[in-house]
Amino acid sequence: MIEEMRLRDLGVIAEATLPIGPGFTAITGETGAGKTMVVTGLGLLLGQRADSGAVRAGAAQATVDGVWIVPEEGAVAERVREAGGDVEPLGDGRAELFVGRSISSEGRGRASVGGRAAPAGVLADLADSLVVVHGQSDQLRLRSAAAQRDALDRFGGEPVQAARAEYRLAYEHWRTLDRELSQLTADRDARAREAEELRAQLADIEQAAPQPGEDAELATRAERLANAEELRLAAASAHDALSGEGDAPDAGSLLAEARRALERVHDPVLEELGAQVADLGYRTADVAAALAGYLADLDETGPHELAAVEERRSVLAALVRAHGSLDAALDLLDSGSARLAELDDDGDRIERLTSERDAAASALDTAAGALTAARTEAAERLGAAVTAELRALAMPDARLEVAVTPGAESASGRDDVAILLAPHPGAEPRAVSRGASGGELSRVMLAIEVVIAAVDPVPTFVFDEVDAGIGGAAAIEVGRRLARLAQSSQVIAVTHLAQVAAFAANHLTVVKASDGSVTASDVRRLDGAEREAEMARLLSGMPDSDAALTHARELLRLRTDLD
User: Fold this and answer.
1) Out of 445, 491, 529, 561, which could bridge 486 as a Cys pair, Cβ 3.0 to 4.6 Å?
2) What is the rounded CA–CA span in Å between residue 563 and residue 558?
3) Which of 122, 129, 44 is nearest to 84 (CA)?
C-alpha cells in the first residue's frame, strides 16, 4: 500500500502531503481545487507519461515523492534491487519503498526507486504488482473484449490460469512447427533448384578431380614447356662450363688443379684454403649433375605435353571461374555432400513435420477445450456474483452475464468473452457498452472489482470519480462497497459525493486558497467538525447549513454502523 505521498508544484498544488495509510481514503474538494492532481501525482509514481503542462505556473519543476509499504522479499523488492535500489526493512516482513518522480517545465523528467535513479519504466513495472487505477478511461477499457477476458481469467483463479498456461505452451509449440513447415513448403521449389545446381557443381568438381595447389604447379610447368629450347641452351652452356668435355678448361678441372697445387705444400692456412677449394669442387660436381638431370627431363618432353598441360589448366580455370578459386571448389566438394543430403531430405522432413504439427494441433485442441471449459465455469460464477453485487448497488433488477463464445485463435485461447447486462427484467442481455449508462457502468466496474478482489486481491485500488453519474441510495451503496473492498485492499477514491466519502476511514480534502493573483491548493486531513462541514458542503454547497450538517452526521453514522 501507499503510506504517504508528497506533491510540490504539481498543477494548482504548491505543496501538499497526503497521509494515506491502510483502508479506505476519500479525497474531496471544490471543483478546480486540484483533486485530479492527486491522481496525476500517483500516476507519475506509477510510471505513467509525464506532461510538462502539469508543472505549476512559474515553477521550474514539479516533484512527487511516495512511500510504499511492500513485502521485504518478493517480486517488488527483487525488481527494485535489479534497478540498483533497495527497500528499508521494518522488522515485520514488510519494508518501506521510497519512490520519486520529477518533471521540469521544459519536459525533462527523472525518476528514483529505492534511493537510486532509475528509468520511469521501472516504476511502471512495479505498478503492475502494486495498484489498479480506475478512472473514466478505465471504464472505457472495461468495454474492450480483451479487458473483459482478462477480468474473467483473474476471477477464475488457479483453474483458469493453469489451463491458460497449458494452452499457451501448446499454442507456441504448434505455431513453431506450423511456421517451420510453412517455410519449408514455400521454399521447396527454391531448395529443389539449389539441390539440382549443387549436384551439377559437385559432378563437375568430381570429374575434374583437382588437387590442392595444382593450378599453381601447372602454371609453372606450362611456362617451362613454352620456353623449353631457351632453357635447354642455358642449361647445356652451364653444364659445359662446369664439366665440359672440350679443349677449353671447365670449372671442375680448374678447381681440381687448384686443390692439387695447395696440397703440395704444408702450411696450415693453405691447407684450410685447400679444403674450401675441395668443397667447391664437390658442389660444382653436384650442380653439374643436377643440370644433366634437368637436360634429361627436357629431352623427354615434347609438344604434346604442353598441349596436355594447357588442356588441364583450362579445366581448372573453369572451376576457378565458377567458384572463385580452386580452394573454394575443393571446400564445396567437402561440404556440398552434407548440404545436398539436407536438401534431398526435404520430402522426409515435410512428412515428419506434418505429422508432428498434426499431433501438436490435436494437443492444442485439447488444451483449448480445457481452457474454454474452465472459463465457462468461471463465467457462470462471476455472472452470479456480480449480479448479487449489483442488487446491493441499487440495481436490484439488473442481471449480468458473462458469455464465452468461440472466437479467433490467439495466444490467449479460442474464446471471445463478453460481459452482458440486462438492466431490468425481460430485457435481453446486451454488451455493457450498449446496455449501461455512465453511472451503471461505474457500478458494474465496481461490482466486478469487489467480486474479483475476493479471489485475486490487489494491494491498492485507485478510483477517480467512480461515482460519476449516480447519487442517492446508489451512491451510498457504492460507498459501502468501497469500504468492503478496503477490508482486503487499500482503496483511494476521488469523489464529489458525501454518500461515498462518508464510508472512508481517512478523509482528505484539497483546499484552494487565492490571494487575488496566485491560486494554490493544499491537502488537509479532516476529522470531527471539519469533516462534517466538508460533508455538508458536498451535500448542499453550504458547509454551515444546519440541515446539511444534520444529514452529514447521519451519513457518518452509516460508517460507524458498518464498523
Assistant:
1) 491
2) 9
3) 122
Task: Kindly compute the dihedral angle of the four CA atoms of residues 14, 19, 21, 23, in this order, to the nearest 10 degrees.
Answer: -90
pLDDT digits (tens, 9 = 90+) for 14-54: 888 889 989 999 998 887 667 778 888 888 888 888 788 88
Strands 116-117, 131-134: pairing kind? unpaired
Q: Is the pLDDT of residue 301 over 60?
A: yes
- Distance between CA atoms of 246 and 237, rounded to whole angstroms? 12
Give the 3-state secondary structure of 519-543. Answer: EEEEEEEECHHHHHHHHHHHHHCCC
- Name the nearest CA neighbour of 439 among 471, 480, 483, 484: 471
- 127-183, pLDDT tens digit by residue? 877 887 766 555 545 667 888 898 899 899 999 999 999 999 999 999 999 998 888
For residue 200, give every residue at least 6 positions away whose Cβ sits within 8 Å of its Cβ, in sequence order, or none. Answer: none
What secondary structure does DSSP assign to 39-87, as a single string?
HHHHHHHTTPPP-GGGBPTT-SEEEEEEEEEEESSSHHHHHHHHTT---
What average pLDDT score do residues 490-498 get?
90
Give the residue-averaged pLDDT of 399-417. Answer: 93
Q: How far is CA 551 from the centre of its chain?
A: 55
Q: Which of 499, 441, 508 is CA-nearest to residue 135? A: 441
The pLDDT score that the predictor gives to residue 139 is 52
Per-residue pLDDT averaged across 76-93, rounded?
A: 90
Q: In 3D, which of 119, 8, 121, 6 has the Cα closest to residue 61?
A: 8
How many other C-beta atoms lie within 10 A of the C-beta of residue 382?
25
- For residue 4, the cross-strand partners are 19, 67
Q: Using the 8-state DSSP alphabet, how is residue 458 labeled?
A: -
Percent helix, strand, coil in the chain, to 5, is 60, 20, 20
What are the backbone dihedrals phi and psi of residue 397, each rounded to the nearest 5 degrees, phi first?
A: -100, 0
Under 8 Å CB-to-CB from 424, ≥6 apart: which residues?
Answer: 397, 398
* C-alpha cell recorded at residue 359: 499431433
Which residue has 487505477 as its cell numbers?
133
Q: What is the pLDDT of residues 178-212, one digit of tens each?
A: 998 888 777 776 777 777 788 888 888 888 888 88
Our CA angle for 506, 511, 517, nearest 5°, is: 165
CA distance 101 to 8: 11
